[in-house]
Amino acid sequence: CIVGLLFLVAHTDSGLAQNSVGVPPLVVEHPQPSLGFEFGVGQNSQSGTMACDCGSTFTGGKGTGWSASGFFELPIGNSLNVGLKAGYEQENVSTTSPILSENVVIVLADSQTSATPILTRQNAILNISFFHFDPFIQYQILHTDFFVQLGAGISILSSNQFSETRTIESSRITLSNGTTINNPTFTNGSTTEAIQGGSIGGIMSPQFSGLLSAGYNFRFGIVSIAPMVNYDYPFSTNISPGGNNWKISTISGSISMKFNL
């Protein structure tokens, strides 16, 4: 009887030991490096004074732009990543000068000419494209999916296209001989004519800027999608003819998609 009792106790202890061995070990997940792409659209704002070869000056230009890039992120901790973006960016600004009084030569119906002042306004549009390379560091706020990025922008000029036109603002002019002309036009039959086209000089390359972004990661397995708000502050200054300095800053929204490797 005593032998049987000892056998039962030994068998019970053996079963408990086997159950304890079956507890799964604790698994610690480490952040993974990732590859992704990002697309954004933004609002461009010109600061300083831009001047063209003809001598006209423009301030307060605004416009829209877009950018597309690929990137690589490498974790260096549970809340910190470093990375590099590389891509293409298109910026444009348009601006209008104050109304000016110009002395112009009017061609009359009988082919005679008359010099008279007329009110005009100059309009300028600038399109610039860059290849950009942006090293950055990203911090996950309080171990959540909210994050901020701080980076340095390095932009290489790809192309620039500048166009300037002027528009007649006077609805009526009076010639020196007293003749009144209603709705005057340029010799092309329109109230608008081209003054200058093509590229302009003085745009620095490479250009350097500071980048600040904030966003949130929506995670779906190995895929993360992040809407972001970005600000690009330029450090480089462009130099127009006559020594006028100007630069373009950008506020944009973008969305990125990345894949864990």
Features of the shown structure:
mainly beta, elongated
Characterization of the model:
This protein has 261 residues and is mainly beta. The chain is 8% helix and 64% strand. It contains 1 helix and 15 strands; from the N terminus they run αβββββββββββββββ. Strands 1-3-4-6-7-11-13-15 form an 8-stranded antiparallel beta barrel. A hairpin with a 5-residue loop joins β8 and β9. The N terminus is likely disordered.
Topology overview:
Blueprint: H1 2-21, E1 34-51, E2 57-59, E3 62-75, E4 80-96, E5 100-107, E6 113-140, E7 146-168, E8 172-174, E9 180-182, E10 192-198, E11 207-216, E12 218-220, E13 223-234, E14 238-239, E15 245-260
Antiparallel strand pairs: 1-2, 1-3, 1-15, 3-4, 4-6, 5-6, 6-7, 7-10, 7-11, 8-9, 11-13, 12-13, 13-15, 14-15
Summarize it:
This protein has about 260 residues and is mainly beta. It has one helix spanning about 1-20, and strands at about 35-50, 55-60, 60-75, 80-95, 100-105, 115-140, 145-170, 170-175, 180, 190-200, 205-215, 220, 225-235, 240, 245-260.
